[in-house]
Amino acid sequence: MVLIQIFLVFTIIAALIAVEAPSALSSIISLGAVGFGLSIAFLWLGAPDIAITQVVVEILTLVILIRATIGKGVTEIRGNESKTLLIGSLILFGLGSAFFANYLSAFPEFGKSAIDVFSETPSQFYLKFGLEKAGGANVVNDILLDFRAYDTLGEATVLFTAILGAITLLNKDVFFGEGGEK
Q: Per-residue pLDDT tens for 128-166?
């Protein structure tokens, strides 16, 4: 539980940096760190579908936003800044790799079905008790709206937040003027 709190604090700090960053590129990179922290938190909480959605949205958002900021006063990184960023990136990459390796070690061995490895899979539960517990004849709707409603809400929240963040960063000059001050 402590590890998820560390990732959430990391995410909050990255969000504050994204809002207060002096340049658009710095804001976009910090926004990517927010998405990274949230995807790890979702994965740790047992919601891999939301984590995957978050990663895909982050990748698309970062590519689009970085492409939109090229040529708009983006400065080069020189000297000690590049070494610090390289070391920080390597540390983040190492931590992420260790986390994912630990997470992937719990997967069944290649070629084995998860249904064979685990005795109680969610799909068996949904098929067995879907009509009785949810009351709907359509099992897919029962899963999305009754059994996994919070996941569906989480995925919608991830998409909404990504769109809102993109609009805010792209309209930063409109809201705050050229210098970033109101």
A: 777 788 777 777 777 777 777 777 788 888 888 888 877
- Rounded Cα distance, 112 and 118, in Å: 11
Q: Are 29 and 37 in contact (CB under 8 A)?
A: no
Q: Which sequence spans correspond to the domains of the chain?
A: 1-73+162-182, 113-147
SS (H, E, C) the chain: CHHHHHHHHHHHHHHHHHHHCCCHHHHHHHHHHHHHHHHHHHHHCCCHHHHHHHHHHHHHHHHHHHHHHCCCCCCCCCCHHHHHHHHHHHHHHHHHHHHHHHHHCCCCCCCCCHHHHCCCCHHHHHHHHHHHHHCCCCHHHHHHHHHCHHHHHHHHHHHHHHHHHHHHHHCHHHHHCCCCCC
pTM above 0.70, yes or no: no
- Residue 24 and residue 12: Cα distance in Å, rounded? 18
* Confidence band for 182, pLDDT divided at 50, 70 and 90: very low
